[in-house]
Specification:
The chain has a six-stranded mixed sheet, sandwiched between helices. A three-stranded parallel sheet has the order 6-8-10. It has a two-stranded antiparallel ribbon with strand order 1-2. Helix 2 crosses helix 16 and helix 3 runs parallel beside helix 4. The protein has a single domain, classed as 2-enoyl-CoA Hydratase, Chain A, domain 1, CATH 3.90.226. It has 17 helices and eleven strands. By secondary structure, the chain is α/β, with parallel strands linked by helices. The two termini are about 30 Å apart.
């Protein structure tokens, strides 16, 4: 977190830092008399795993900053050097799933996912520039925050992934929107395999905008205070772009090799099939000798059969959906995943017992039926009290 320079004018912060420890907030005055707003996820020990408390704090403050004419730019980051955000707090979600015995959707899961997606949508549509410092691990829910920011920065330490195939979920938080917008079928490959990508990969697939050195963070934040800010959001976006570009020009020599770019032709060949069975078999049987591709194929082979089939169907259904429609669809699917066995079982095997031996239901890809997958697209609340969609107003 940058050093505190001034306190908020509304008295919500002491010495510039919020008392709400889950997320730290700060505002710093610029040379033009405007303010830069900083928000830092503050759970370093859990790699800044996103909790409902964090989501609510961040969403409320973004709304406040949006209405404050003195705030011209927002900066989002994570505590520590290891991660911006390693994903949502899925262990707590699993606990709520196991404890939920009443009929109807799990209220804790519905609150978490609906408010998380609302926050992600807000970031995508935010009228002011948002600089997101994506250093270290950026996965799952962290990628949902990252993807929608107007200015997305990666470093030599960035490690980005949507590894939900290994926990019986799917790439949510807008993944149904941004993965299909990558070149060719790279997004489909990343969804099915949960493959981790680096900074160069993120630039190549248009998931990131600028590459900076990780130790340049503080100098970048200081330079924000001297930029030519104005009352125009578009001019401020341009000013931030120019500033980031000037920093990025000094870092090309440490940009890592892109695994995705190196294997782009192979990825396209493996995913060109018209059926999921064809694509799944092609990836699982990869024997081209590239270590990154081999790991991706192995993850797919051991992943949840339901997740794999679900990702394929999402890829088909999301093709012509708007961003708001994507988030509404994802909320339904995520709540259904909480009602089906693979999500809690995947979290158990990977993060709770850590035996890495999930027992998937169904256990084999061939046993996943169309009706099993189509059931994931039925709103769980409609069967009980015909409630409106929680994200109907997006």
């Amino acid at each position: 977190m940058p050093s505190s320079a001034s306190a908020s004018r509304n008295g919500a912060m002491a010495d510039g830092i919020s008392n709400a420890s889950a997320v730290l907030f700060e505002e710093r005055e610029t040379s033009t008399g405007h303010r830069i707003a900083f928000a830092q996820l503050n759970a370093e020990k859990s790699l800044n795993a996103l909790t409902l408390d964090m989501i609510r704090l961040l969403d409320a403050r973004l709304q406040q900053w949006q209405d404050d004419a003195s705030v011209v730019c927002v900066v989002l980051m994570g505590a520590g050097e290891k991660a911006f955000c390693a994903g949502g707090d899925v262990r707590s979600l699993r606990d709520s799933i196991l404890a939920h015995k009443a009929p109807g959707p799990n209220p804790q899961a519905q609150a978490f996912f609906s408010e998380e997606y609302r926050l992600d949508y807000r970031i995508h549509k935010y009228p002011k520039p948002i600089l997101l410092w994506g250093n270290g691990i950026v996965m799952g829910g962290g990628l949902g925050l990252f993807a929608g920011a107007s200015h997305r920065v990666v470093t030599e330490k960035s490690r980005i992934a949507m590894p939900e195939v290994s926990i019986g979920l799917y790439p949510d938080v807008g993944g149904s929107w941004f993965l299909p917008r990558m070149p060719g079928r790279i997004g489909l490959f990343l969804a099915l395999t949960g493959a981790s990508i680096n900074a160069h990969d993120a630039l190549f697939v248009r998931l990131a905008d600028y590459f900076l050195k990780s130790d340049d963070r503080e100098s970048l934040f200081e330079s924000l205070l001297g930029a030519a800010w104005s009352s125009s959001a578009q001019k401020n976006r341009n000013a931030l772009s120019q500033l980031l570009q000037s920093h990025a020009q000094r870092t090309t020599e440490i940009l890592p090799e892109s695994n995705v770019r190196r294997n782009a032709d192979a990825i396209q060949a493996l995913t060109h099939g018209e059926s999921l069975l064809e694509v799944r078999n092609a990836i699982s049987r990869y024997n081209g000798g590239d270590a990154w591709m081999t790991r991706a194929a192995s993850t797919l082979a051991s992943g949840s059969p339901t997740s794999i089939a679900l990702m394929w169907e999402i890829w088909r259904r999301a093709k012509h959906l708007s961003l708001a429609e994507v988030f509404r669809m994802e909320l339904i699917i995520s709540l259904q995943c909480c009602e089906h066995p693979d999500f809690p079982e995947g979290v158990r095997a990977l993060l709770v017992d850590k035996d890495n031996k999930p027992v998937w239901t169904p256990p084999n890809f061939e046993e996943v039926s169309e009706s099993w997958i189509s059931g994931h697209f039925t709103a769980p609340w409609s069967a009980w009290n015909n409630e409106p969609h929680p994200l109907a107003d997006l």
